[in-house]
Design brief:
This protein folds into two domains: about 140 residues, Up-down Bundle (Four Helix Bundle (Hemerythrin (Met), subunit A)); about 110 residues, Herpes Virus-1, CATH 3.30.40.10. β1 and β2 form a beta hairpin. It has about 270 residues and is mainly alpha-helical. Zinc ion binds next to loops. It comes from Maudiozyma saulgeensis. GO terms for molecular function: ligase activity; SUMO ligase activity; zinc ion binding. It is found in: Nucleus.
Length: about 270
Amino acid sequence: MPKIIPDQLPLNNNALKELQRLRATEQSRLFKECGEELKDTMYQCLESVQEAKEIAPLLESLAECAATLEKQENQYNNMALNLELAKKQYTTESENCKEVTLETWDEYVDKTLNAPNLIDILKMERSEEIKSQTRRLPNSRISDTNKTLRILPQIWENPRCVLPDDNDNEDDLMIDGGIIELTCPITCKMFEKPLISKQCNHVFDEEGLKSYFSREPRRDCPQTGCSKILTFRDFIPDPVMALRCRIAQIQETKHLEVGEHESLDVL
Ligand SMILES: [Zn+2]
């Protein structure tokens, strides 16, 4: 029996419009919640620990968890982007096809004319294209938690330790003799809401900065020796400093013996 039905036909405009509505479900909130949940669990672990040595295996399994989640989030984002790219490609190819009429029907049957195959287009290898478009991907919701968990063991060992990244700021005046100060140079108290300058990476407490800029909204950085002209808006939260202070406080209140340093001397 001769073939009478084409393998592929181009979609008509209405069907193409329907296709545009097909979207991967929005999952960024879910991943954000997972990240926050992990962070809460991390703090609960830190708060409830009785002996310093208990913490390492807990943090390790949390870090594994976060790494897996980050991988899944990336896979999900890639899949969603792949779907968008495939839709675009399919639509363009479909629109370039000759309209299906009684005259063109036979040509689609004997493949003189060809229509795109949606499944084939979806399955196409796009990793290079996706890589070049990663800036279009939403920021990872998990990587922030993941980063925190990666640096946590070192901070737990010594809340004032200089982390590898800190060394990038060569003129960082917070580093004095290889330690990070946990007290605000303005309030002279331990940071409560540490804010970091986007211009010079100097960290101060929110309270101190507010009073520092209250009379003169644009003035030099409060750090001695730093001449950057700043406003309050140049400062953003510093989660790493907040973590350092929280851990120092936990260790101090519980009198936990961590690392080699004798006294934490924080309060
Ligand atoms: Zn500064």
